[in-house]
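User: I'll paste a sequence; please echo it back and then give the predicted structure.

Assistant: Echoing your sequence first, then the prediction.
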Amino acid sequence: MDILNKQIQNGVDKNDIHWVLTVPAIWNEHAKQFIRTAAREAGIKMGQLSLALEPEAASIYCRHVKMSRTAGSSSADISTLKSGSR
């Protein structure tokens, strides 16, 4: 919070942050509830918390990150790949 407040002119309030925690897709509801409880004990309000399954979060990340080509040092945006590319 200190770093954010130094970088943002009007500062950041804890209520401005929505936390997203990733969890393994194979976790059952009991394990997910454990994470929710731990987050609450860490001071995160339940209205400001979302759990995301790791495979879904990885998929979203891969759709928006620039990736490097394996041969050569140039980089390409992932959106330039055609369907079926490997």
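The two ends are 41 Å apart (CA to CA). The mean pLDDT is 83.
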